[in-house]
Predict the 3D structure of the following.
Amino acid sequence: MLLTIKPLGRIRLATTPISGPETFGSQRILGIPPPSTILGLLGAAAGVKLDPGDVKKDPLLGISALLRALHERGFGMPVIEGPLLRVKKNGTCWAIPIFTKEGVNLVEYEKCRRTLIEEGMVYSEARIGYATARLEPGIALRDTIEGSWHRVVALGYTFRRGYVQYVNAREEKGLDVEFVYKLNLERRIRIGKRLLRLGGEGRYAIVKIEEGDLPGIASPLNAEPGTYLVLNYWPLVPRSGHALYLEKNEVIGLEPFKDPSQDIIGVPKIIKRSEGGSPAKRVIRLGLGFSEVIKQRRPQILALPPGTLVRLRLKASQAFPSIYKKLLKAGYASLLNLAAELPGL
């Protein structure tokens, strides 16, 4: 099964607070929704109601409880794998996100698959778009009951919020983007085609389930050894405050790598054919989302960003700690085997 999500306008996918003065403020953004956002969307579609007490006891503030509830309704584990992006630009193509130092870029998969395998690079002609943050003022509202129910502005609560927009790299116009996930269902459920909330700030998307498959997409829980591209944030959790950078014995999440310094190839650069370079290893800060049930933000962790090339040498699913497996079952660290050919559009 395939889960397709078509955002209606800009979506809220910020990864850091807005910094800088009001006119020139900036914000780092996530180019694709984190799995916690997609799980919340699926939970709403399946009618899941979580108990606040269970959420507070959960180290992941609701992710474990939501996984359990979705599994009871027929979802397999991991719930989702992916995403790939279906982009309409003079036709339709499959695109993948590449988190370079300059920002989040969308590149056409078929135009860069060979160079990714052979050179660890993406040539600029494969770049079709990028994600950018649009900052807007916001006003916090509070509910009051004074004879009748109404909403008023909470004193002192004006703020700025950043929305993600996908832009055509050549024409500087908006791109028509759909997120496509492999959805693991043990039995058919009725979601149909619906309008559902995606992320915060009242953003919505058209969501539907389609027949089909995405060959080559896997999770570290079931991936065979090989060379892959990270499609969804790969969590890295230091075991202590003194953990060394990508040291296997000190960081949870490096179990599939024999030698992380060699097996984590890095994020490919997007270059002209006359230029040179090599992939760069990047680690980002990643928030695990906001719990709507208890109105509390989950902690931040470290992660390898989407677009990172990795070489898996070990099948290490049994070596992952239990709480880390919950993140993988939620869809974190999804992978694309670069040897796979994607289905036609």
Observations:
- The mean pLDDT is 84.
- Residues 2-337 form one domain.
- The longest helix spans residues 35-45.
- The radius of gyration is 20 Å.
